[in-house]
Amino acid sequence: MRDFYGVTLANGFMLGTAQYPSPAILADAFKRSGASVATVSLRRESGQDRAGQDFWALIKDLGVHILPNTAGCHTVKEAVTTAHMAREVFGTKWIKLEVIGEEDTLQPDVFGLTEAARILSEDGFEVFPYCTEDLVVAGKLVDAGCEVLMPWGAPIGSGQGLNNVFGLRAMRAHFPDIPLVVDAGLGLPSHAAQAMELGYDAVLLNTAVAKAGDPALMAEAFASAIKAGVQAQISDPMEPRDMAAPSTPVIGKAFLS
Amino acid sequence: MTQVTIIGGGVAGLCVAQNLLNRGAEVTVYDKGGAPGPHACSWWAGGMLAPHCEGESAEEPVIRLGQEAADWWDFHTGAVTRNGSLVISPTRDEADLRRFARRTSQFKEVNGAEIAALEPDLEGRFSKGLYFETEAHLAPRQALASLREKLIQAGVNFITEEADPKAHATNGLTVDCRGFTAKDTLEDLRGVKGEMLILSCPDVTLSRPIRLLHPRIPLYIVPRGDGIFMLGATQIEATASKHVTARSLLELLSAAYALNPAFGEAEILETGVDNRPAFPDNLPRIRRDGNLIQANGLFRHGFLLAPALARMVAEAIFDNATPEVMDETAA
What we know:
Chain A: This is Thiazole synthase. The complex is a heterodimer. Chain A is α/β, with parallel strands linked by helices. Chain A contains nine helices and eight strands. Chain A has one domain: TIM Barrel. In chain A, α1 runs parallel beside α9, α3 (about 75-90) crosses α4 (about 110-120) and α7 packs parallel to α9 (about 215-235). Chain B has helices spanning about 10-20, 50-55, 60-65, 70-75, 95-105, 110-120, 140-155, 165-170, 245-260, 300-320; strands spanning about 5, 25-30, 50, 80, 85-90, 110, 130, 135-140, 155-160, 175, 190-200, 210, 220-225, 230, 265-280, 285-290, 290-295, 325-330. In chain B, strands 6-7-5-12-13-14-11-15 form an eight-stranded mixed β-sheet, sandwiched between helices. Chain B has a seven-stranded mixed β-sheet with strand order 9-2-1-10-17-16-18. In chain B, a hairpin with a 2-residue loop joins β16 (about 285-290) and β17. Chains A and B meet through α1 and α2 of A and α5 and β11 of B.
């Protein structure tokens, strides 16, 4: 497994911490799934007076790697400020960089993203950029200092799965040494399995678990699917073919008709 | 006669006072802020008595215990309106309505004509909804004031002073109902920030609380009568600051505007922000350490769960019972 800025994760499950019915259920989802990374938003729980610290303490208690994010930031300045606050609050150089460009699709503003990624990388941050599957943009992010790429599967919270399998496959082929994470748009464990089968290193999701009727059970289901996808990928799956190929030999079989 | 000191005169303290009074206790209530006002979280409440709707995201005890609320408040204050509640979504978010329906019960599916019959001012705007006929709502400030008045008439002594629960407990039975202020002694209590608005919009008439489902901005609007509406509420994992943020205001108002564009002409009478006291599972707790009982963690369910919480405090004191929400007992 490729490492993330020198950190080898126990598995490729990155789970968000927003929108759960309660922090107790959130903790249960982490416990039962064994997710190795928790993403946490600072934007809404912010404030100069560190107003979110009770909740942040609960996140720290999960005992997993913390990946703070800049969710809800629309400008480079906002994202950079939020990243600095996150570094201070969580004592980590990791930052999931989100610069939103469009309100209805929550599509990343790839120009602002690249600029913020450069500023933060130069400042010593280890940036996980939320991007699209555009290879040119991805290349610019790598040039800006990103050692991880996080293309979307589908718009945030849409639960549509992998919208552009061709594009994601091309990205994997194009960046063989960069750890890749499908971030956003996953709705079902089968979507996560598919991402791992494509050779992705991790998936990041939140709504699909938090908004399930039984979030902890759904988190466990995702963990199983991620494991299955990885096992499938490393076991070198068969090539699909156009014609049927019988799995039992027909030669020598008795013809009784 | 059993003497009990209650510290905190918000919705929890007043309900506990009433239930202890019913059991024959002599009750004194301390609140440093005096009568319920902006210092109390319950002052800013929506006042929805909607246990079934809450079941969408709350756990089973909230649905069950919340069913005691409407009768309790009706009996003790008469301030309850039993018109049900209505849940609707814009057409493009109908998936959220289906999800809400899967997670809840005791509703009737309603179409556009039925929505218009219930709420004429929503005519032609929504084509599907869920009508929770048995639910109710109240006006929190009136309910708190009349409950307090009734308690005074019945001989409850109200003292406007800050009081230390531990110090009082050395002299006798004390119930700590201070809400988020009790964080000094309740390590696992956290504040969940809520922001709300009060609008005056005489152009719109609604007869019951309306919940508008939206993936990012779920909103409820509770009619207070005379063209006054309470619009709520954000739910943010942070300790509240003093003022509503511009972003929350924008989100709440745009949701109201989606409900009926006439809300664009509304006047904003008040904005409010406070901390809902919550434990990690967002369920209330009773904790007892000798003479000191702590009743807290009502989260967003103050008016809905305070009657049940108060009943259980009384049962712990007078029946020596261990209520289901009691999670720690030190002798």
